[in-house]
Amino acid sequence: MNGGAATRRGRLSQRIAAALTLLTLAAAGAGWALWTWGRSPAPSAAPVPPEVAAADPEAAAGFQAARQRVLQEPQSAAAWGGYGQVLLANNCVPEAEFCLVQAGKLDPTEPRWPYLQGWALLATDHRAALQAILRAADLADRAGTAATATWLQLADVYMEIDDRKQVEAWAGRVLQRDPDDGRAHFDLGMIAVAHDDLDVGIAHLLRAADSPMVHQRACLQLAAAYTRQRKEEEAAKYEWLARQAPPDAVWVDPYVGELNDLKLGREARRRQVRALAAKDSLEQQAVLLKRMADDYGDWQSTMDLGVALTQLKQYDQAEAILRKAETLAPTSSEPSYFLGLALFLHGEQLQERRQESDAREKFRAAADALRTATERRADYAQAHYKLGQTVEKLDRRTEALEAFRTAVRCRPDMANFQLELGKALAAADQKAEAAAHLHEAQELAPDDPRPREALGRLDKGKQPD
Amino acid sequence: MIHRRRPYLAAILFGVSAALTAGCRPPAPSGPDPAPPTADAGPTEPEWFEDVTDQVGIDFHQDPGPLGHYFMPEIIGSGGALFDFDGDGLLDVLLLQSGGPQSGSKNKLCKQLRDGRFQDVSAGSGLDFAGWSCGVAVGDVNNDGWPDVLITQYGGVKLFLNHHGDGTFTDVTKEAGLDAPGWCTSAAFFDYDRDGRLDLVVVRYLDYEPSIACPGPGGSVEYCNPNTFKGLAAVLYHNVTGSDRRPRFEDVTGPSGLGRLPGPGLGVLCADFNGDGWPDIFVANDGKPNHLWINQKNGTFREEAVRRGVAYNGMGAAQAGMGVALGDVDGDGMEDLFVTHLGSETNALWMQGPRGLFRDRTGAAGLAQPSWRATGFGTALADFNLDGALDAVVLNGRVTVGPTAAAASYGLGPHWSKYAERNQLFTGDGAGHFRELSPSQSVLCGSPNMGRGLTVGDVNGDGAPDLLTTTIGGKARLLRNRAPNRGHWLAVRALYPDPDRDAVGAVVTVWSGDRHWIRRADPCSGFLCSGDPRALFGLGKAETVDRIEVLWPNGTQEQFPGGPVDRVLELRQTKGAKKP
Q1: CA distance B211 to A377
Q2: Angle of the A112-121 helix axis to the A126-143 helix axis, nearest 10
């Protein structure tokens, strides 16, 4: 009898305990939901993007789509971070910062968010930027991932405030991973030189010079460091090497590099156009520019299409498009210049085909367009230069000489301008002045044989080419 | 039984604690996170300057032209000058307008009266014209004893001959042979061939096409980045004025070598950078390596900024060079170079040592982490509190839209409020270190502005350098020096005699006990402006001057006797004892 009651009491207790447990677990779950909800801002706090619908509807749509994701997933770090990245890619920095901070709160393990926040803050708040990038480095460490870009960024930030110890610490970490990292060697070299440790600095800069990413910069700094050591020959050597070197290869910070693909609207399209130009994909470039001209209808897009068609030697089409650009921008010198250029090149093509009369007609039209360009902007050196070449084709040598003179006066640093002026002066029998300009052309472009050849003909009393 | 209850007990305990603590986290703020606190700027300092603009009757509002087109000259601004045009010993004021030829906003010339007030004498002066005026350089181009005025423009230069101080100036640009095309910014008179006649360097900015629109944040329109256009080379003119005193210049840009390297140039200073007694030319280029043209003593110049350490900053990067100042900040007898840059960069202090070589010491000098970052333009190294150590002042204002707009209460209008920033002031210790005073200086640094031209001069004759500032779309201000605990001073005017005219570029060294100070007598203010042609010295506690040495622009050196402090001294060439 007693055992049965005890069993029933026991079962009741168990049921009560189970019920209580379920209740408290539910309460815990509710508490967790409340805590999570408290961590993320209200979706309506997602920054409103700039008002660009009228000027760039594509950009407006891109902003809206990114914002919409936040509204739909307010607790998603990826949504907030993605919107932040879009805003940052399109130079909406304060709005981007807000989103990146929220993303960092929702996913406190992802180094990308504090890194980008710090990168954005570098321009305005160095201290806060440093804290954010340090946080990113710390998160990367905890995740066991190498964060070379972050370490290099920290080395740069500390270099700006002349903290040698920190520069060495962060650049040192990079070298532990990759002993040949040129950027790290460059930073170590620069900070050593800044502290008068020239031998150490030069050693690092020599290593840096082996890297295509910092070769030119390293050579320039070696020239300065060797000058400090009074080693004039070495200084001259590295200065020469720097001048011969191509520009340093662009190093893409991985996190920042992601932003390049997030540009919106007109800027995104312009970026695509530049990428195609870099690959010499002229036809694809023209297709893209045609779409832009159709979509935007502004003079710049129209003119860019005309320029692309000129490069494709589709001169008739180019002329029509560039004339349209001229009417869209009646005060700008640019469409008139490029129209003149297209007509000039068309004229040269016709000359090659021995269609002399048609060629001269094109040259006359080119001269008119280029004159318009110089009237709209009196110091447009390139237009004066091209006008000079054009009227030379029409045997108007006095006018050509004046045009070349103006071009050189505006831009004395242009070797071609000095060369053409020199040749025009030689043709006008103004030998002394011709020689001066030909020598200048030679100085400006020592690898170009034409000034030397022109000087040779001048010396021999021959007519210039 | 107890054993079997433990899991439930644990779950209950967990659940209760979770539920209790869940509500404690405050909701996330709905706006951007608050900015981190700014660094402690030290104890509060009394004001060093007092705005006396209204009190002295200077009424000038800069007109940048019609807004909305993002025309680049708007964002560069225009400068001004402190110079004594009428020879009465008092500094007068010239302020430039940049609203365009159709604007009706004309440059203003104000004469200082004996009571310290200024009288508008623009009408009929010849300097009162509307245009896109940019910078000004002052110098006596025909050695008649009267300072002449060169105004640079978006679209060339204009030279005005001073008509014997009667308040009228004649435009002699054409007959003088000055025909600099393009966008001209800062300019400086200096005697590069040491023949006693002032030559002229004009720095040019960009091969600019105004119709090109550049993108801003989110696809809006913004002022173009200078990288959008090609830079222009500086122009050098050799003064060949004869005994008839009719100004004439020859364009020697090509033969001199300056034409070979384009800018884009904004700031310029001429001084002997390598200690050989011949003046060189430093050009601050915007976004490109700076140029240091070393005088080869034969009419040509060689560019040596890379080798001498002033082309790039200490990180090997070219910066946006705007304002330029030169001064011996560490008392080693060699002048150091200070250039202002964008807010995303630091302003750079290159310290000279050994002679002719420079190193970026911005961080070590305490200038890399100011209370706020800003885009600097006009700047000066001057001893404002006369303690014997040079101080630094920077006028600020952005070139692209900022993250937050200045409050409407500052009266900048909806456009410029997005670009305005606060100026900065740093006090030097004479050993190459600076301490920031900006947060405590409400007159100079309290209100955001579009700071551009900065000119230094002792306007009221009390020995302490005052400031004349210009701003885009705002008032020009005359800030009278009120620095506390001032030391002793000396103002030295270095003159060529017969007739008396400023020996521009003379280097003056003052000795007192075991201390000495060097200053240049040079009105060029580095960015768009021209200032006091005298060498202004703060002498700290020194109560007498033992001797003064002058290195004249033609290379000769003379020594003059010392004497009491706290006075203005005029030293004439050939009146001192020649130094070998």
Answers
A1: 11
A2: 160
**Which of A82, A60, A80, A59 minimizes the C-alpha distance to A71?**
A80
Contacts of B404 in chain A (CB under 8 A): 94
Work out the burial of residue A395: count CB atoms within 10 Å of its CB; fewer than 13 is exposed, 13-18 middle, 19 or more buried.
exposed
The predicted structure's pLDDT at residue B28: 32
Which residues on A lie below 8 Å from B31 (Cβ)?
45, 98
Q: How many interface pairs between A and B have CB atoms less than 8 angstroms apart?
A: 234
> Which of A13, A329, A381 shows the shortest C-beta gap to B211?
A329
Mark yes or no for CB contact A227/B307 under 8 Å.
yes
Which pLDDT band, with edges at 50, 70 and 90, does B419 fall under? very high
Q: Where are the alpha helices (DSSP H) in B289-434?
A: 305-308, 413-416
Q: Report, as an integer, the average pLDDT of B144-153.
A: 98
Question: What does the pLDDT average to over A291-307?
Answer: 94
Q: CB of B186 within 8 A of CB of B267?
A: yes
Do B262 and B253 meet the contact criterion of CB atoms below 8 Å apart? Answer: no
Distance of CA B16 to the CA centre of its chain: 67
Q: What count of other Cβ atoms lies within 10 Å of the Cβ of residue B544? A: 12
β-strands B280-285, B265-271 pairing: antiparallel
* Distance separating alpha carbons of residues B212 and A334, to the nearest angstrom: 9
The residue type of B63 is D
B144 neighbors A341 (Cβ within 8 angstroms): no
Q: Are B147 and B140 in contact (CB under 8 A)?
A: yes
Measured between CA atoms, the residue of chain A closest to residue B212 is: A300
- Asked if A186's CB is within 8 angstroms of B308's CB, the reply is no
Strands B488-496 and B567-572: parallel
In which region does residue B116 sit, left (phi positive, over 0), alpha (psi from -120 to 50) or beta (all else)?
Answer: left
The beta-carbon neighbor of A34 closest among B22, B30, B213 is B22
Residue B236 in contact with residue B200, Cβ under 8 Å? yes
Angle, helix A449-459 to helix A415-427, in steps of 10 degrees: 20
Angle at which helix A126-143 crosses helix A148-160, to 10 degrees, equals 150
pLDDT in tens, B47-99: 999 999 999 999 999 999 999 999 999 999 999 999 999 999 999 999 999 99
Query: What residues contact residue A229 under an 8 Å CB cut-off, 6+ apart?
Result: A198, A202
Inter-chain CB proximity B315 and A266 less than 8 Å = no
Is B401 in contact with B216 (CB distance < 8 Å)?
yes
Chain B residues touching residue A228 (CB < 8 angstroms): 309, 357
Token digits of residue B225? 């980045």
Q: How far is CA B490 from CA A290, A414, B535, B537, B542, in A?
A: 69, 48, 8, 5, 11
- The answer to whether the beta carbons of residues B205 and B284 sit under 8 Å apart is no
Chain B window 30-59: which residues touch A at a Cβ cutoff of 8 Å?
Answer: 30-33, 35-36, 39
Among A9-18, A112-121, A132-141, A363-372, the minimum mean pLDDT is found in A9-18
Residues 521-580 of B with CB under 8 A from A: none
The C-alpha of B304 sits at a distance from chain A's nearest C-alpha, in angstroms, of 10
A43/B contact by beta carbon, under 8 A: no
Residues 390-409 of B with CB under 8 A from A: 402-404
HSE-CB at B268 with a 13 A cutoff on CA atoms is: 35
B68 in reach of chain A (CB within 8 A): no
Query: Which of B21, B211, B312 should be substituted to probe chain A, the one whose Cβ sees the most A Cβ atoms within 10 Å?
Result: B211
Do residues B203 and A321 make contact, with C-beta atoms less than 8 angstroms apart?
no
Q: What's the burial of A360, exposed, middle or buried (CB within 10 Å: 0-12/13-18/19+)? A: middle
Which residues on chain B are in Cβ contact (under 8 Å) with A59? 218-219
